[in-house]
Amino acid sequence: MADLVYRRVLHDLKSRIHDNQFPDKRLPDERSLSEAYNVSRSSIKRALGVLANQGIIFKKRGSGTFINPLYMKNQTIFHYEGSNLGITDSFKSDGQTQGIKLLSFKVVPANEEMQQDLFLEKGDFVYEISRLRLFDDHPFMIERGFIPIKIAPELSQKVVSGSIFNYLEDVQNKVVTKSFMTMKVAPSNEEDQELLGLKPTEPVAIMEGIFFLDDGTPFEVSNMRLRYDYFNYNTFVTLDEE
Amino acid sequence: MADLVYRRVLHDLKSRIHDNQFPDKRLPDERSLSEAYNVSRSSIKRALGVLANQGIIFKKRGSGTFINPLYMKNQTIFHYEGSNLGITDSFKSDGQTQGIKLLSFKVVPANEEMQQDLFLEKGDFVYEISRLRLFDDHPFMIERGFIPIKIAPELSQKVVSGSIFNYLEDVQNKVVTKSFMTMKVAPSNEEDQELLGLKPTEPVAIMEGIFFLDDGTPFEVSNMRLRYDYFNYNTFVTLDEE
DNA sequence: AAGTGGTCTAGACCACTAC
DNA sequence: TAGTGGTCTAGACCACTTA
């Protein structure tokens, strides 16, 4: 994976940018880069495309490719590297503790919706895992996840009481790299109010997602209900390609 | 712009997907598409790549290209799907009407936070534009935006009563292509309840964003409060290209 | 073994910018 | 007019999945 041509170029250019090797904030033109790296112009383009997506450079047709001055300044805000799809790792824990309380752990037949979402056949089974997430002993999220048993046949109660993604990666060498999420807002229902300690006027954020493995296999559908005051989603959107 | 090959394919495939012309949730393979559209496989790949980025399809190496089942569900009104940064264009208007009611339009000095976000100097001024967005005559969003006067010196009351982004693009040839957004949830306050017609138990979604022009210039900071039942944000996160 | 998506190349032509 | 990035092609080869 790391020996791909465009990736080699990408990493090299990135470190050269960080090393300030382009003091005029301008990169060489694509044809020169192609020659210098001894790769095709398409590969250069691909590497530059990734950098542009990350907001590190700007291309201006007809004039050249330039380093984004904002990127070099305000690194904290605009830097989008190493985000994480898993919940356990999405919360900053500077000394605070995260906890998981297992509410229920069952095996159930996949309903029709689930069959579609997870690419299952009629009669396939899924784990249904309900958990309460705690942050410094305060519950902030109800999580109900469904995972096909045929993808992870030996999930145990112990495993689902911890980070499932970490288990998968460490033990089974499966990596979750994509997710499709949809976010909504709703008034809290009675279960929310009880489990999350909310007043009737206090709402929840709802995140539903499908998580995919590296190869595109849908791995889990998850429904998450969060205390409104623990929800904060940041995103950097670019529209280069419509 | 619209006559690009990959865009033609992209739009065609997109509408075929929406029309449910692939009932088995599977697209033809790339080589067949290439032949069917009479374009190169690279162009097919590019179109499919955009669809994949938008989370509409996903590709499984070795087996094929499939439609994301979650995408077809959850099609509410506010629908950001990376297709457009502007609000006016983010709403599906199949016959429905969108409206904007101007609440206030002032010029004020930029406070310190604004100076940072919009890269302004001490003493610079910004427009403060408050608007109520309507959908089929129902208010669904309160929008308060701040734009530096030095970037758009001749904004008029008429312009800010319509789509500012469209005005910029059509009249000034400036295009907004990037944004940094943060989303939260909160109980509705009295102003929300009055303007959006909410009950005290009904919440709002809050979106705050900085919008950037093509060349990286920050153009607007905006704070948006939406009726909870009009909010639905879909996003597809990939950790692929690092 | 056949079929699928992924990567990469070499080169043509186009559209825009700067001088 | 020269130089830049953008689009597109045709085809080779690789990696993975499925049977």
TrEMBL record, chains A, B:
Record domain HTH gntR-type: where: 3-70
* This protein's record includes keyword ATP-binding: no
Residue spans crossing the bilayer? none
Against CDD domains, the record matches this protein to:
WHTH_GntR
The family database entries (InterPro entries) matched by this protein are listed as: Bact_HTH_transcr_reg, Chorismate_lyase_/UTRA_dom_sf, Tscrpt_reg_HTH_GntR, UTRA, WH-like_DNA-bd_sf, WH_DNA-bd_sf
Q: Where is the signal peptide?
A: none
Q: Which Pfam families match?
A: GntR, UTRA
What UniProt keywords apply to this chain's record, in alphabetical order? DNA-binding, Transcription, Transcription regulation
| Name assigned to this protein | GntR family transcriptional regulator
Q: Specify the taxonomic lineage.
A: Bacteria, Bacillati, Bacillota, Bacilli, Lactobacillales
